[in-house]
Amino acid sequence: ADFSKGAAFSDGKFVPAGEAAISVLDWGFTRSDVTYDVVHVRDGAFFRLQDHLDRFERSLKGLRLSPPSSMAEIGEIAMRCVALSGLRDSYVAMICTRGRPRIFGSRRPQDCDNKLIVYAIPWIDVIPLDVQERGAHLHIASVPRIASASIDPTIKNYHWGDLTRGLFEAHDAGADTAVLLDAEGFVTEGPGFNVFIVKDGEVLTPDRGVLEGITRRSVLELCGMLGIPARIAPLTSDDLASADEMFCTTTAGGVMPVSRIGDHIMGNGRPGGVSLRLKSSYWKQHKAGWHQTPVDYSIKTTS
Ligand code: PMP
């Protein structure tokens, strides 16, 4: 088998990522009844693997999903997917779907056998590199983020209907991507990333309606290390409109500068100094081995 384009673990077997399949009857597909997490490998090492496993475990508990493997086993499976692929830079997803009911026609989630899928594919940037370079243009979506009381944003989920509508709006408006406000007008997050603003030298990120991003956590830690004041706070579109700088954070991209939010152009349309400092220190810390677990590329067995 050719694992060079990625390796997946599905139904208890390791297969090339493109061959891993899921039933059309799986509730993950028909109901978005699924959770996932994404961790990355850079230069042959996982970044914050245990933090991602811990968040995945919290998400599983939150949705009352129990995969057929333990958390430690899932960590090893992820390691083996990367080893099999040989990828030095990889996007590694772990997914647990509700699966299918054991009893045909049952509508009871309790009757389902939950399914685990893990895969490692080549690195992906949520915002393309050339766009990151000039600073992304963000659109403030008119569609509100789904209510946290209905879909808990701290549980990583594929309820992306609102985010996808935001993306279409953004592209129609000529922007690169979107940020969504909640029904009360507070800033939340975007399709695949948390957001930050910089104002009067202070770094701020929304306190509600967001996934507790691991990159967001890393940026807050980096601010502490670099002596940059940082705070988690309620933010409104007025805060966006008066921001000196803005950036997005995600596992699949790191710190991604923004140069325009709605009509507000920041820093003469270029990424800001604090954003660039955090971006470069994020990758510098990676190189220095910060929060890393090296991949053992010798484990290439598929059984
Ligand atoms: N919010 C949403 C909705 C996301 O999908 C992601 C991507 N995982 C993030 C935030 C960023 O989280 P992290 O830094 O852990 O990748």
Automatic annotation (TrEMBL):
**EC number(s) on file:** 2.6.1.42
What is catalyzed by this enzyme?
L-isoleucine + 2-oxoglutarate = (S)-3-methyl-2-oxopentanoate + L-glutamate; L-valine + 2-oxoglutarate = 3-methyl-2-oxobutanoate + L-glutamate; L-leucine + 2-oxoglutarate = 4-methyl-2-oxopentanoate + L-glutamate
Quote the InterPro entries the UniProt record gives.
Aminotrans_IV (IPR001544), Aminotransferase-like (IPR036038), BCAT-like_C (IPR043132), BCAT-like_N (IPR043131), Class-IV_PLP-Dep_Aminotrnsfr (IPR050571)
Entry annotated with the keyword Transferase: yes
- Provide the cofactor list for this protein: pyridoxal 5'-phosphate
Please name the pathway.
Amino-acid biosynthesis; L-valine biosynthesis; L-valine from pyruvate: step 4/4; Amino-acid biosynthesis; L-leucine biosynthesis; L-leucine from 3-methyl-2-oxobutanoate: step 4/4; Amino-acid biosynthesis; L-isoleucine biosynthesis; L-isoleucine from 2-oxobutanoate: step 4/4
Q: Zinc as a keyword?
A: no
**Tell me, which GO biological process terms does this entry list?**
amino acid biosynthetic process; branched-chain amino acid biosynthetic process
Q: Which domain of life is it from?
A: Bacteria
Keywords from UniProt, A to Z, are: Amino-acid biosynthesis, Aminotransferase, Branched-chain amino acid biosynthesis, Pyridoxal phosphate, Transferase
**GO molecular function terms attached to this record:** branched-chain-amino-acid transaminase activity
Q: What class of enzyme is it?
A: transferase
UniProt-listed PANTHER family: AMINO-ACID AMINOTRANSFERASE (PTHR42743), AMINODEOXYCHORISMATE LYASE (PTHR42743:SF11)
Report the function annotation for this chain: Acts on leucine, isoleucine and valine.
Q: Which family does it belong to?
A: Belongs to the class-IV pyridoxal-phosphate-dependent aminotransferase family.
Q: What is this protein called?
A: Probable branched-chain-amino-acid aminotransferase
